[in-house]
Amino acid sequence: MPGLSIGGGRRYNDDAFSTQDNLRVTPSYTLADLALRYEWQEMELNLRVSNLFDRGYDSICYDSYGCSRGQGRAVSFTNGKTF
């Protein structure tokens, strides 16, 4: 289809020690992303989805405070005019 672009990717974060004392590990995780773009005449439409499958994960863990949850699925849509 002319004017249509599709992109995707995976983001992998390996497990990591959380503090200098190495008492807790933040587990590894893999996320999928998707991007669609459509250009028609002088218009451009963009759709982006981060964490496509809405995977739950810990973004960082602390020794005594527990873990902080990572961002869930995020969708953005933009349109604009091309020159």
Helix- and strand-based class?
Answer: mainly beta
- What proportion of the residues form beta strands (DSSP E)? over 45%
Q: With helices defined by DSSP (H or I, 4 residues minimum), what is the helix count?
A: 0
Distance between the termini: 21 Å
Largest sheet, described in full? 4 strands, antiparallel
Oligomeric state: single chain
- Count up the domains: 1
**Largest sheet, order of strands side by side?**
1-4-5-8
Query: On the 0-100 scale, what is the average pLDDT?
Result: 92
Quick structural gist:
The chain has 83 residues and is mainly β. Strand 4 and strand 5 form a beta hairpin.
Give the key terms:
four-stranded antiparallel β-sheet, elongated, two-stranded antiparallel ribbon, 83 residues, mainly beta, 61% strand
Could you please describe the fold and organization of this structure?
With 83 residues, this protein is mainly β. It has one domain (4-81). Helices cover 0% and strands 61% of the residues. It is built from no helices and eight strands. The strands form three sheets. Strands 1-4-5-8 form a four-stranded antiparallel sheet, with no helix packed on it. A two-stranded antiparallel ribbon has the order 2-3. The chain has a two-stranded antiparallel sheet with strand order 6-7. A hairpin with a 7-residue loop joins strand 2 (16-17) and strand 3.
Write the layout of secondary structure elements.
Elements: E1 4-13, E2 16-17, E3 25-26, E4 29-40, E5 43-50, E6 58-62, E7 66-69, E8 74-81
